[in-house]
Write the structure tokens for this entry.
Amino acid sequence: MKRRSGLLISTIVLVSLLGMTNPFKETRDLPPFYKAWLEEDVVYIITKKEREVFRQLNSNQERDLFIEAFWKQRDPTPGTRRNEFKDEHSRRIEYANKMFGHGTSKPGWKTDRGKIYIILGKPSTSESYGALEHNLVPLEVWFYQGNFGPGIPASFYMVFFKEWGIGDYILYSPVRHGPQKLLETFDVNPNKALSILRQVNPELANVARSLIPGQTAPLDARTALPSEVLLNSINVLPQKRIDDHYADKLLKYRSLIEVDHSVLYVENDALVKVIQDEAGFFVVHYAVEPRRLSIEKYEDNYSANLEVFGKITSLEGKTIYQFEKQVSLDFDEEEVAAMQSKLFSFQDSFPLIPGDFRFDLLMKNTVSREFSSLEKDIQIPQPSDAPEISSIILSRDIERIVSPGKALRPFQLGPVRASPSATNAFFPGDDLNICFKLYGLTGELEQNGFLDFLIVREDQQVHSFRKPIKEYESTEACVDVIPLTEFSPGHYRLEVSLHNESQKEIGRSIENFAIVPLASLPGYWSVSEVMPQRDDPYYAFTLGSQMHNQGETKKAVLLLEMAYSQRQTSFEFAVTLAEAYYSLGEYIKVQELMSRFLEKAKEEPAVFHLLANSCQEAGNYGRAIYYFKKYLTQFGSHIVILNALGDCFLKTGQPEEALAAWEKSLEMDSGQDEIRRKIASLKEKK
């Protein structure tokens, strides 16, 4: 397998992961096509959540994307061009309109018979009874047999009748209507009605008593109640058949997936661990394991293309860090065959500053237009010298790295790299590899401290042992192995506690896992991104950028200066440092730094923008005008630039030029009240 990966974006131009959601639109506000789709085409099969999400969409493009995703989620063969579910649904609507709309003011799909036909399809058998036949009202008895899902019996009846012998056919309920409603003469008691029906057809009497075959007890509420439950279950059957979790994801990430119409949401398992590195900063390690990874074949080549978008936000919603990665995967036929029975795991890691954050990640497979997502709250503690135990990583096996070097791979602790599964699932023949780190240990604690291991199932202790700290080769990579041969299937909790020489507990870490009753679990193959060596300026730059975005700019500048001093040719490093300088009012430093990258100004608007703004703030309005004009010449009109240029013209005694700049800006956006006032004020002074 060959893989190509690269970081695609800088921290200057960041992709927004989260689309703004508007209050629900009223259905009447939708364009006619989409209103009809929602209220007619899919009214019986759309879930409440899907309906709510659809009403929050802002454009026809977003609605088209949702409709495509809606059908994709129901496609029984997503790898083929044909969507059998959609085709069958359309056929049922067409049939309902053709067969059930006669003699009624409603279209066929809107009748009770049309609704049941659209939901359940063609009955196994059907029988009609004519008007006034044996004193019966017009009625139809449909019989269904098959597997319709949980809560639905293997066989049942649906009965439709014309109440009082007139009007539309309505769906019969033994509870709400009773057998007497099936007779032209209504003034009989239920038992008498059953007797009359039995004379016509004994099975008809049984159906009038219960829609579920085999129930022959006397008619009462207890006998009829299962029929009412059946009718209610059928009403929500289409909603139960679909996992509408995808709709929330589609709404949240629509700004990213609408570009290539990645509409098929794939459920996944995910694992996120925060581990402190040897250098002192914390690293977020994560794994995303989609339930399916589709691979495209072209001639003799197989491929998948992954685009990964990650975003870290503060609890207040401020963007702290964003990244985008692209991973191209190429396979041969032998590799594809070997992967058929395995799960796929994408693994990556990145450094993160202390704080409480929200981690959102979107992973798209552009080849198959599938997407998965991860949402996780993350807490990064402040570095401390106090003794502590890290998060626990559980793994079916581990890799001993002979020459670990300074690079860091996901779920790597010192010279040991774990291979965790996001589900933390094991089988009885596995070894449970327990991996963790110990921080801040004193010499005395290393010599005399110990760890207690406890495994609990349903609050009952099933296994425990104690291990002195000094028995570990390195506290940077503590590994313990527990054979699971004697453990029965179930859910377990592992607790590892750190104790000093006085047996006082000074730290604890907990991790849940499961043992499944299978002979074996499927293996998995993974793609792992590797972070640079620890002495690479990437770390200082990334952490400094995060601090700057969080508002800790004074601290950020120290790291950003360190990063730039090691990589002075990097425009990304330089412009981020210049933005930090600008935030601190260090305008001369901004100008000095950006002047070194004037050759980049042809393609990077940030150069002229920062130079112009810093000159304006420093009171050098003439020079600011020069750079603002350069920006406009190179990149075209921009409202913010025109407004700032007008201010500089006014400062230098050029009111006509200021007026021209502001009027051009107002043409682009007529809603700028402040600019309108400035223009009016200038014209009054003429």
